[in-house]
């Protein structure tokens, strides 16, 4: 599995690839000629510094080209090597040639430090300042130069650092804009998900209403045509079932803090309107139950209450792991309610009473 990285990491990874290429081109394209000119007091020291800087770039490329962040140990060791190489390269040339073309390490070192410390801006600024102060100290150690030489040295130092600081600013701006763009994209994704969820829920509700109204309309048509006798007990039970199902269906669309209790209360209210004496007891705190699971949990309650003749008792038990709804009613014994994929149903007949229990267990992630 690929490791998920923050949006800013991609910006730093891309900028480091650019910096690795720029550092290599600058070192071998612009700094190699002054090194070969042999205008040094200690040529071997300058060559060693040049090789050390090239090795730092080569080692960093092992992580940069794979777009992986540099390890902390590599950053610390690489920074120490770069600063030591800069000191050696500066000490290798004559004092009167410092801050001139032969002082190739003055500007080159800053690019190596950028490669190492791009995502650590405060440390980068501190190390760059220490590098310039050390170079300026070595420059002034040979004696106080005249104004023209001092001005030229200042212009050289400013020109070397100015571009590098511009790279830091550009990287920070890109990093910030990337975060903003990713936040906007995530918000758009959330909105799209909400819209799709709402559309799916609306389609589901239409299907439920169509199914429920279809069965109700056939019942009403049978009563209107005289095919069904309103005095027949089976017809009365079908009417009670249809009324309870419709009342439950309407309750599913209500925005309430505890939807499950609200839907069971709607079923109880429909039974009480028929004259059934219903007691409803709740135990336990509210737990989130998916809408489909609520529909399957209340299905047995609808069936039992619609079949009840005069009295019924509904009890709900809720825990962190499961929800149980039990119904005891003086209903007919031939009532059959099957278990579903999410909800298990158990029922039994005790004399003239029917006991039914629906159980839903929370799925563990």
Please describe the structure with a list of short key phrases separated by commas or semicolons.
5 strands; 11% strand; transmembrane; alpha+beta; transmembrane helix; 365 residues; five-stranded mixed beta sheet; Heat Shock Protein 90; Histidine kinase
Topology:
Blueprint (H helix, E strand, L loop, with lengths): L6 H23 L2 H5 L6 H22 L7 H21 L12 H13 L3 H20 L6 H79 L7 H20 L6 H15 L3 E7 L7 H17 L3 E8 L3 E8 L13 E8 L2 E9 L4
Parallel strand pairs: 1-2
Antiparallel strand pairs: 2-3, 3-5, 4-5
Helix pairs in contact: 1-3, 1-5, 1-7, 3-4, 3-5, 4-5, 4-6, 5-6, 5-7, 7-8, 8-9, 8-10, 9-10
Please explain how this structure is put together.
- The protein has 365 residues and is an alpha+beta fold.
- It folds into 2 domains: 7-185, no CATH class; 232-361, Heat Shock Protein 90.
- Helix content is 64%, strand content 11%.
- It contains 10 helices and 5 strands, in the order αααααααααβαββββ.
- It has helices at residues 7-29, 32-36, 43-64, 72-92, 105-117, 121-140, 147-225, 233-252, 259-273, 291-307, and strands spanning 277-283, 311-318, 322-329, 343-350, 353-361.
- A 5-stranded mixed β-sheet has the order 1-2-3-5-4, with helices on one face.
- Helix 10 (291-307) links the parallel strand 1 and strand 2.
- The longest helix has 79 residues, at 147-225.
- The protein is rod-shaped and about 120 Å long.
